[in-house]
Specification:
The complex is a heterodimer.
Chain A lengths: L1 H24 L3 E3 L14 E2 L2 E2 L7 E7 L6 H14 L3 E7 L4 H6 L7 E6 L4 E6 L4 H10 L4
Parallel strand pairs in A: 4-5
Antiparallel strand pairs in A: 1-7, 2-3, 4-6, 6-7
Chain B lengths: L9 H24 L5 H16 L5 H10 L13 H23 L3 H19 L3 H11 L5
Helix pairs in contact in B: 1-2, 1-3, 1-5, 2-4, 4-5, 4-6
């Protein structure tokens, strides 16, 4: 009796710990030190269906999406609203459903993945999963986007 | 590209909830009464997974969800592509095969398979984290699936 109860509760606890870890890590961003320049034209980035190559005056958000990603459309809406609300910020989306080479190049293993670029188009910060908005806002503020 | 009918993401999550209960029960029975005691539920999981892989349209989970659960919920905010959850069902199916066929040879495989199925289903049902879906882009990148 004891062993089975302990084993079952242990498994349940493992599930809960896994779930909480996921909630904490999901969308958590980190700084990128390589400062690679992200060429929006080469990536065939678009903003609401129109091709875009322009960086924002202060910052640019690039969202990588796939057609089979459930949470991408919601994130896209949120980030588009940010672009509309905040000055100096541009938003661009890249569909990587059939472009696994792009995913491999940037080491993207989940969608959405969001890149934050500075005014010169250097990649400085990235978030895998649904971004944590308060964290993203802090990073944007550091770049002077308000 | 053909148009794919998008689905209510809560459908697969509802199914995962039932799966997590069944697999946890199979796991608990294995520990309580010897590994083979979890076998009937493992076979049930095998049948349910096979059903959703080969005949997803009239799966019992799906019918219960549509008839009894969905009418009581609000409209979904977002529909999702069915391919990642279907892929996740295939991953679940392979673990059920391991438990059902492998379990006949090495009975310890029954609780092991049940544990893996439980973790994946539990994370999906209660945390909205779909392990199979998460692996989808990564596995495609490495050419393991197309």
């Amino acid at each position: 009796m004891e062993t089975s109860l302990i084993a079952t509760l242990g498994l349940l606890a493992l599930g809960v710990i896994g779930g909480i870890t996921f909630k904490v890590l999901q969308g958590k961003g980190h700084r990128v030190s390589t400062k690679e320049i992200i060429d929006l034209g080469k990536l065939k980035a678009n903003n609401n269906g129109l091709p875009t190559t322009e960086y924002g005056k202060k910052a640019t958000l690039v969202q990588f999406s796939t057609s089979y990603c459930g949470q991408c459309p919601g994130v896209k809406r949120t980030l588009s609203q940010l672009e509309y609300r905040l000055g100096g910020l541009c938003f661009a989306e890249v569909d990587i459903t059939e472009r696994l080479d792009v995913a491999a190049h940037f080491n993207i293993s989940q969608t959405p993945t969001v890149f934050l670029l500075n005014d010169k188009g250097h990649l400085i910060y990235r978030m895998g999963g649904v971004p944590k908005m308060n964290q993203l806002m802090q990073e944007l503020e550091k770049l002077g986007v308000k | 590209m053909t148009e794919i009918k998008r689905i209510d993401p809560r459908g697969p999550r509802f199914g995962a909830g039932i799966t997590s209960v069944l697999s946890l029960a199979s796991f608990a029975l294995s520990f309580q009464f010897g590994f083979i005691a979890g076998y009937p539920l493992m076979v049930a999981l095998f049948v349910l997974f096979a059903w959703s892989v080969f005949l997803p349209k009239n799966h019992p989970y799906q019918l219960i969800f549509q008839k009894l659960v969905r009418p009581r919920l609000k409209e979904p905010t977002e529909l999702e592509d069915p391919r990642p959850p279907q892929f996740a069902q295939k991953v679940g199916f392979s673990f059920a095969i391991l438990g059902t066929l492998g379990g006949l040879v090495v009975s310890a495989l029954i609780p092991i398979a049940a544990a893996f199925i439980f973790i994946a289903a539990f994370l999906n049902a209660f945390f909205g984290f779909c392990l199979g879906c998460q692996m989808y882009l990564g596995l495609r990148r490495f050419g393991i699936i197309r």
